[in-house]
Amino acid sequence: MDKFKPNYHFTPERNWMNDPNGMVFFNGEYHLFYQHHPDGTTPGPMHWGHAISTDMVDWQHCPIALYPDENGVIFSGSAVVDWEDTSGFFEGKPGLVAIFTHHDRVPGTDRVRERQSLAYSVDSGKSWIKYSDNPVLESDRFVDFRDPKVFWHPDTKRWVMILATGRSVCLYHSSNLKEWTFGSEFGQGNGLYDGVWECPDLFPLAVDHDPSCTKWIMLVSVGGRPEHTEGSLTQYFIGDFDGQTFVNDNPVDTVLLLDHGRDSYAGVSWSDIPEEDGRRIYLAWMSNQRYCTVTPTDGWRSAMTVPRALELETRHDQIRLIQKPIQELETIRMPILALEDISLQEAELHLSGLELDSFEMIAEFALGIRENFTIKVRTSDSQQTVIGYEADQNEIFVDRTLSGRIDFQKDFAGIHSVKLVTEDETIKLHIFVDRSSIEVFVNDGIAVITDLIFPEPEATGLGLYPSEDAIQLRRIEIFKLG
């Protein structure tokens, strides 16, 4: 096994993977499709890889679902359950429909062409039939015209598609998934505007768990330009949607980032999660367009984040998107350590002998007089990844400048941080470490930092380091995962 192959994050069996696609729940199974090049570890003619799971933790790899054809290669898209057979594909029964981008060039030219197409499955996703009249949506207006995310809008009783169109998104609607009508366009200077918009999603969430107060969340991934050293990242908007038009609640220059690390991109949510479950579950590609093709893995490339439940909460008089790791991850825990109400110096004595390469840590700090602290993971004599709190800046940060292999791209090494807003002097960090990644959930998910790391296998140490004796550790729990 490659030394960087994750222990509990989803990866392809071999070769290249990027964006999650077609995420849908049907007949007791979570389907995950993904952008896949089966013949190499860098991008090539794109297919839809496929895996299924009953819990989003243990995945079964399946045969490739969609292959390139006469209309082009298979770019990103979504899948839905057509419960009422509006498409006519299923003889009145429910079935799965995939909506994806065909990418090719206009015949006789070098001009890129992107069009939306359908495939359907009559056997719960085991095999797929492409619609004979593909493509079903095309445009002469946009060069970038891709990544359709489709959902049923119950108020208007029709399907809605949100589609990435350059530095905007366009919204279309349909009664049957085959014929689409333009509804509106959103973008026009809203939020981050320094890269192409990709992989949108749009869905409602109750505010503070109150079903009588609902807002719509729009996710938009922003591809990095060469002059933008941060690379690609994901933003979100909060607003209202009437089935045709999205209205942003915030000023156009408001930027809300879904993740403050460098390695959460192209994320979208699962379709058709049962109403009795009630969760909106999100998954992202754990990499960055700046260096995704040169990460130092052997025979495979890229992983997904842990699945995350999304919620809307009012924090400090502002509505914000909250991310929490799914509870199903608790099924692969092996308890290692649990301590309460001790100093960091005492906790360090308990941690000093531990050696772990893939684990979960929950740490809750009572700062008292607002002092600094650091947590070091995946450490050896020469390597470490540092999670810390900088009191002067009031920031949580992840420092991967000594995290192992950092020489494969000039912008990879760095420190990534987020401003912290707390109602008291408590900081809670929920940390997931794997063989080549770290995900830090801050204060019950108000902020997340996701970063790739590439430490050597022997870098398995960890420790806690306070700047002053005043910091108390309310609790710490550590679980081995896998």
Describe what you observe in this structure.
It is a single chain. With 482 residues, the chain is an all-beta fold. Helix content is 2%, strand content 50%. The strands form seven sheets. A six-stranded antiparallel β-sheet has the order 22-32-23-28-29-30, covered by helices on one side. It has a five-stranded mixed β-sheet with strand order 4-3-2-1-19, with no helix packed on it. The longest helix is centred in the last third of the chain and has 8 residues. The two termini are 15 Å apart. The mean pLDDT is 95.
* Spatial shape: globular
Main sheet summary: 6 strands, antiparallel
- Please, what is the average pLDDT? 95
Number of helices: 1
Using only C-alpha atoms, the radius of gyration works out to 22 Å
| Side-by-side strand order of the widest sheet | 22-32-23-28-29-30
Cα(first) to Cα(last) distance is: 15 Å
Low-confidence stretches: none
Helix content: under 10%
Q: Beta fraction of the residues?
A: over 45%
Number of DSSP-assigned strands:
32
Judged by helices, strands and strand pairing, the structural class is: mainly beta
